[in-house]
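@channel sequence for tomorrow's demo:
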Amino acid sequence: QGWTRPPRMDAVAQVPPIPRQNNPPYNTGAFRFELTFSLNHPLEPPCATLRTPIYHPSVDPEGRVCQPLTTHAHWEHTTRAVQGGHRGDGGGAAPGVPP
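structure tokens (generated this afternoon):
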């Protein structure tokens, strides 16, 4: 199965879901990340690096995580590192982590 471009140029195209892999390391969900904070933090975003080898469209070949929130253009000094990495409550602080 594949997908084709819609006949007109839409800003959003429907892409079928990618099947979940059922082999290591994807089936366990255990991935090692490294967060590096500059001396200018919180004025500069941390650098997130994935240390578990993986192919993902948001991770470059060296393991650097490429997300808008971790770029200088989108980072706010009031943003907390847990907001960029937590995906359970819409991007807020992780449960049990004080504000």
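heads up for whoever presents: The longest strand covers residues 33-36.
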